[in-house]
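Action item from last week, closing it out:
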Amino acid sequence: MATIYYDKHADPRALAGKTIAVIGYGSQGHAHAQNLRDSGHEVVIGLAAGSKSWATAEKDGFDVREVADAARNADVIVILVPDPKHRSVYEKIAPSLGRGRTIVVAHAFSVHFKEIVASPDIDVVLIAPKAPGHRMRELFVEGKGVPALVAVHQDASGHAKATALAYAQAVGSTRAGVIETTFAEEVETDLFGEQAVLCGGISELVKAGFETLVEAGYQPEIAYFECLNEMKLIVDLMYEGGLSYMRYSVSDTAEYGDYVSGKRVIDARVRQTMKDVLAEIKDGSFAKRWIAEARAGSPELLATRAKEQSSQLEQVGRSLRAMMPWLPKKEFGQPATPPAKREPAGVA
């Protein structure tokens, strides 16, 4: 069984009187910084010179400095920038680090895959909230919190876990529950979930279903609704009550089709591919490929992004979403165009 920590397990004195430098002020950074400040802690923001977030952080009332300056007098340094930037950030703050300092990360990628190799006399911990930053902030303001993961990579002080739990409490996560894990487990399961299921797996399943219907002669608009639009309805049911609640909520026909066809689509070959993907994550192959890609300017990422945004699936989706005024406007890529009108048969 998992070990789960709540407010009663955290001692805020572990952070008392300490200055916290939050490096980065994006999705996670702004939420961590504001929650920490509301919990009574002194927070300074570290950003690169010329960062687009500088003015935003200052407008929000923070003392904003360049990265090395922010870390110089901080007791706890929280690195909340994209994974490929962690090494350069660490190189800037390393001269300021020493006994009694703590590094906090929200994702274990850089530490586990040795982009950051911390000095042995500092603590290195993980607090990974399981929600986007804006949601983390919203729930904190409501007096609630998002669940998080906690792990200790390096405990030079003997008090690393106490610091991590106090930090989790300060950002609101011990209100919901903080699950103990390891750096390896956090990053390997996170990357696998993204690639095999949540992003890669679902995206390719949607695309394959859409293309199968269109190639069989069905209208793209109908294929879009059946293979992408209705997915939210199903995922919401899963989110609220697991697979059993989803199957209870759909028709018996849909449930039966789930049982007899699902395993044919996600068959033994697909499961073996998932194992292969996991193996590449665990042995560091994916990390090396991604770091090399990022340092080269992300040519493969950018080219693939452009290609995907111009696909038929995306073009049809933009057109149909333009007919749904209740949806928030979150379009990327080509502008939406109204779908072609087809007059009903027999109408003059």
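Closing note: Residues 231-249 form the longest helix (19 residues).
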